[in-house]
């Protein structure tokens, strides 16, 4: 895990303040073409721009456009809005494991959207993972034991997502993967992004991500946005050897900024 400090990241503060809301506002998703060929996606009381080109750029460079899109989609994962927004983006989208209390501690709700780019052999796949909803998922969050260095509760949830995702990886397509999520969903997205990075071009953007294990990857294509005042990214504690895959972007409020400067 690499930690990155950006004193000019005030926009990230706004993103994290918004994503901290666990329930999506009643809203709708729409798409409108811009003059630059991007879609303007509106949903969850917010919006972002989208173009397939965003996922054809270098996954190892932070994209503020993908960061904002990921944030809004992660927020939408707490309702049906993630699927609605993905459809507005031109994706075929299907939600899984929604419908109330999970039947197992280690399940997680998620939405998979895919889009085959016209005129090419490329398939874009976006996986949006919902954060904690219900007592059973909290039980899974506190399963701090590890399996091969990975938090066992998060790992089992990630395995469940993988078993469904495998159905979208067939067909001889050139695959590009995009994982995102908030809180518990961030942990699962973080694990999945690291898992698939060596096999496919992969983008990972997470928000308020807990630590996911004691054996992690420094994958530079995974970006974790965490608020310095949020307790969730601090558990399980680093003193137990727990970390996250990828790059950590910590947002400091002015009173806690170690540089002495305002963000």
What does this protein look like?
- The protein is of the alpha/beta class.
- The protein has one domain (2-256): Rossmann fold, CATH 3.40.50.
- Helix content is 25%, strand content 26%.
- It is built from six helices and 13 strands.
- The strands form three sheets. It has an eight-stranded mixed beta sheet with strand order 1-13-12-11-10-7-6-5, with helices on both faces. The chain has a three-stranded antiparallel beta sheet with strand order 2-3-4. A two-stranded antiparallel ribbon has the order 8-9.
- Strand 6 (110-116) and strand 7 form a beta hairpin.
- The protein is globular.
- Residues 7-28 and 257-263 have low confidence and may be disordered.
